Amino acid sequence: MRRNKLEMAMEILAALREGPLNRSRLAQRCNINYDRLDEELDPMKAVGWIAMTTAGGHDVHSLTQQGLQKYLAYEVLWNEYLRGLKLTTGQEGF
């Protein structure tokens, strides 16, 4: 199943929450090809959620404080939704 842009963005932020990653590791961690990864990273860099530096000839991406705040807000909303789903249907999620 194809992930939508929000799901992909949050997955990237979650991966970077564990620490900075180069492009290859980030693509591997998120199970995404380089072209789609670049499509997802560009807007997040533009709004300041992700920072990029170069180390050892490789681009290294890291989560900014603003990106962390956005990810944590998403996590709160998602957990509230799952709690509501459980309360109304008895289901634990998808």
| Class by alpha and beta content | alpha+beta
Spell the H/E element sequence: HEHHEEH
How many DSSP-defined strands?
Answer: 3
Shape: elongated
Number of domains: 1
User: CATH superfamily, called what?
Assistant: Winged helix-like DNA-binding domain superfamily/Winged helix DNA-binding domain
β-strand amount: 5-15%
User: What is the count of helical runs?
Assistant: 4
Task: For this entry, give a set of tags.
3-stranded antiparallel β-sheet, single chain, elongated, Arc Repressor Mutant, subunit A, alpha+beta, 94 residues
Give a verbal description of the structure.
This protein has helices at 5-17, 23-30, 34-46, 65-89; strands at 21-22, 50-55, 58-63. With 94 residues, it is of the alpha+beta class. The chain has a single domain, classed as Arc Repressor Mutant, subunit A (Orthogonal Bundle), CATH 1.10.10. A three-stranded antiparallel beta sheet has the order 1-3-2. It is elongated.
Write the layout of secondary structure elements.
Elements (H helix, E strand, L loop, with lengths): L4 H13 L3 E2 H8 L3 H13 L3 E6 L2 E6 L1 H25 L5
Antiparallel strand pairs: 1-3, 2-3
Helix pairs in contact: 1-4
Write a compact overview of the structure shown:
This protein is α+β, with helices and mostly antiparallel strands and 94 residues long. The chain contains four helices and three strands; from the N terminus they run H-E-H-H-E-E-H.
